[in-house]
Amino acid sequence: MISAERIPNNVGLSSNKRLQRALEHWQPKYIQWWRDMGPQGFQDYHQVYVRTAVSVDPAGWAHFEYVKLPEYRWGIFLADPVHDRRIGFGDFLGQPVWQEVPGEFRNQLRRLVVTQGDTEPASVEQQRWLGQRCPSLYDLRNLFQVNVEEGRHLWAMVYLLHSYFGRDGRDEAEELLERQSGNRDKPRILDAFNEPIDNWLDFFMFTMFTDRDGKSQLLSLSESSLDPLSRTTRFMLTEEAHHMFVGETGVARILERACQLMKRAGFSGDVRKVGGIDIPTIQKFINLWFSLSLDLHGNEVSTNAASYFANGLKGRAFEEKWDDHAVTEAMYELQMMREGRLQTQHIPMRTAMNEVLRDWYVGDCQAGVTRWNKILERHGFSDRLRLPDRKFNRGIGMFSSLHFDPEGHQLTDDDWQRRKSEWLPAPLDREYLLSIMAEPVYEPGKFANYIAPPQRGIKGAAVNFEYVRTEL
Ligand code: BYC
């Protein structure tokens, strides 16, 4: 019998027999998946100082304690309802939001929930070996915090599938545990979630750039007319902020350390010789994860996106900041390839909604890169990190069949093949990173040579706190 105490929630689980029965069936499969595909080597003998969502009260929504990972209390939370909430965009603008799924939008909504849900376990799978190469206990704890919360986000989507999509929803919930990141026969739905993450630079870039796509998409889903979807995703955003913090500060600490080592090695010294991660390598990983995450916003011109907007299923980030919420007449200026040349075209904004969200995303990423550059500036270095052009290394959308350099200049196939390892991680770069990460650092307060300690610990605890402890 599933116990509601083991599943913190504000969805009335103890009085909802139907949901309880559905979860009773699903939960053991989830736990088995977590053991098989979650953090490898950290299931039974380690206790991790993690936060657990226990309510949606902004003043105290989380509880911090040592937990064995498979015993984490994955909960189900909806942000508080907004009184008399109305549909904020599209063809049904101004009507009351929906508490149930309208039949005509069932397939589209299910597809959105499944796509969102699929990314969550995928990221845990991608990151499952990183604990064995961690730079410190502080970072190990952050990795596991991100992992358990992605697990909770899967629960959030499974709650919606079980509660609002009947039998199909139950089947989809099972399949979310059956697809696997990188599996040739049953891959995860979106491409970036099939990429391996085998070193900590990948992990920090992923949490900086790919989790930020999570923010983009959750912001747009939190505008949804389906109120339970809106409320679920609104609360997920609370946890997402820490994931991006982990990514941004992780890269910042690697940069800080690179600057310290560069000074020690002599200004122009090769920082790899003293065990650091050099700026050109950091730039290559920015190029990779930014371009993969741009792809996650879909095609520039999309009838799916237009129809999600028209039907009120998926809005824009911060929809209230826009003046026009119907968007029936507005046009969007898009750079398109026409007869081999880039040309500006005006297309109906509804069909450009993926691009509109991508604009928001690029701005948010740029702010992070600007903060990283302040570190280089503070240390007196003239190098700067930058986001590559949007056309660079795209796998989805109208630029995916062409090649561009990071400045956006078009390249021939041959030039691209010849030069891509200047801009994207090459096998030798990965080999180098694995070589400096081969030995995990499990001693409290100690940090691997390539990364600076954080400025402060977690939730007021010291930097040298034992964030992960072994149970004998
Ligand atoms: N990879 O009309 P289009 C997160 C497909 S991350 C593979 O542009 P649409 C997290 C597309 O499915 C956020 N296929 O598509 C982060 C379609 O297929 P069909 C996750 C792709 O629907 C870190 C076709 O191309 N949430 O939370 O407008 C850790 C036509 O494309 C891709 C969501 O994604 C791709 N990248 O846009 C943990 C929100 N892109 O119809 C978690 C829900 C497109 O030809 N999803 N295709 O079979 C969506 O809103 C939309 O599905 C997308 C795609 C924005 C992703």
Whole-number mean pLDDT: 95
Beta-strand residue percentage: 5-15%
**Strand order across the largest sheet:** 2-1-7
One letter per element, helices H and strands E, the order comes to HEEHHHHHHHEEHEEHHE
Distance between the termini: 30 Å
The poorly predicted ranges are none
| Overall geometry | globular
Largest β-sheet summary: 3 strands, antiparallel
Helix content: 40-55%
The bound ligands are: benzoyl coenzyme A
Radius of gyration: 23 Å
Give a verbal description of the structure.
The protein has 472 residues and is mostly helical. The chain contains eleven helices and seven strands. Strands 2-1-7 form a three-stranded antiparallel beta sheet. Helix 2 packs parallel to helix 4, helix 3 packs antiparallel against helix 4 and helix 3 packs antiparallel against helix 6. The model has no long low-confidence stretch (mean pLDDT 95). The structure holds benzoyl coenzyme A. The site of benzoyl coenzyme A (BYC) has 25 residues, from helix 2, helix 5 and helix 8.
